[in-house]
Prior knowledge:
Layout: E1 5-11, H1 21-29, E2 32-35, H2 37-40, E3 51-53, H3 61-70, E4 75-81, H4 90-96, E5 101-105, H5 110-118, E6 126-129, H6 138-144, E7 147-151, H7 155-167, E8 173-179, E9 187-191, E10 205-211, H8 238-248, E11 255-259, H9 265-271, E12 278-283, H10 286-299, E13 304-308, H11 311-314, E14 323-326, H12 333-343, E15 349-354, H13 357-370, E16 374-379, E17 382-387, E18 390-395, E19 399-405
Helix pairs in contact: 8-9, 12-13
Amino acid sequence: MEGLKIYILGFPSSGYENLSSDAKKIIDKSDIVFLSKRFLNLLSENQRKNIVEFPEKLGNLPLKIKEACEKGKRDICIIATGDPNFFGITKFLKKSFPDNIEKIIPSLSIMQEAFARLQLNWDDAKFFSLHGRNKDSLLPFILKTKKGFLFTADSTDVLTLLNLLKNYRLTDFKVHLFENIGEKEESIKTLTFPYLIRKKISPLNVIVFEREKDFGDYPGIGIDDDAFEHKKGMITKREIRSNAISLLELREGNVLWDIGAGSGSVSIEASFNPPGVLAYAIEKDDESFLNLKRNIEKFSAINVIPVFSDFRDVVNSLPEPDRIFIGGTGGSLDSILPLAYERLKKGGSIVISLVSMENLNGVINFCISKKINYELSGILSVRGKKIKDNTILNAQNPVYMVRIRK
């Protein structure tokens, strides 16, 4: 808009007095100043010249600016929190006024203040804003992040995070909740599992979180079988495992059930491919479960959660899965498959590894009875063994792979 000049100022949590002299001059000369009610309460009566509160819905701000411009107000100041360029209002305003931003003056950001309060460096932190974002994107973010900062919209965002951590059994997080930073009512709470909070949460809040455990290095696809501790012969072989992960088509934030997990080879490899997959490795055999836990620790696969139980006893207590791998059922496939399919999310898939014709027939009959389409493939692995100067080829048992989509 011709003649319109927009100034964007970052307001420090410590109040008006700590604005720079340039920022104060801009406020004084502006025809109109938009700011939130929170900042209005920090100004004296003499400082409220030409002050207008933000509209209740931020999306209406461009319209209010245009209306002011049409009434002859050309110098318009927008006051935002901290640094307007860091997950702030600048990007939003540039969409409507790409050629009218005259000057931006930042202040210390809320993020910087929060990390300073904790005496934590933030050069290795990751950042995420829940303002206007789909909450479904929060889980993949926290699953990939060792140290993170959340810009929250209100108190419900805090509860969303805490419920995610609790419901998904993510017990190794430390959550620092900051309320009313810079005000008299400022509060910092540090929460650990089970992430209980008993007082009403202020709508003015942000969160810093840390994971106590460290992520392991990416091990790649097709980890050697001997890298896993396992009962002799009781492991999903490398060739089958790689194929199964390919068929699962995992995405960040997916919840995977690995039923009959054994050594956990599928869960562990899946949790890295891609990062941000949460795997529940369900195993009922004592020795296999001990191996499973050792392997999780060995690979630092912190997004694999071991579950010591018969699957049928925990099927209704686990979070709904996006993907399911069935590699070992102890002869109970006919009772396990219907329960697993019932809990599977719509759009999800099950991959089943089978070695006997009887189990294969059972899966096909289940699909026919439920009128479910299925995909069937077979894998015959051949491995070479050196004997003196010759290489002998040994064929492994054929494995059938069935994929079911819901």
